[in-house]
Amino acid sequence: MRWFFWFNNGIGGSSMTDKVDSAIYIYDVEFNKIKTIKLKTFLKRVNHTLRNENQIYFALKNDAIKSREEDNAQ
Length: 74
Known about the structure:
Strand 2 (23-28) and strand 3 (33-38) form a beta hairpin. A three-stranded antiparallel sheet has the order 1-2-3. It has helices at residues 39-49, 61-73, and strands at residues 3-8, 23-28, 33-38. The relative contact order is 0.16. It has two helices and three strands. It is α+β, with helices and mostly antiparallel strands. Helix content is 32%, strand content 24%. The protein starts with a strand and ends with a helix.
């Protein structure tokens, strides 16, 4: 099964927090369908799948910095 992803961050000016609610379009070759998923949901699934890799993916740099600060405080 192959998956292809397209990223859509909307049209016009958008704030940084809008990235999290942006859509990613998935083309499922096996079923010949185009699906839509929110970036936030996609990243949660990726992070869950890679939870043992010691890397976490973020849509916003501020969220990554906050997570690093929380980990360093422990």
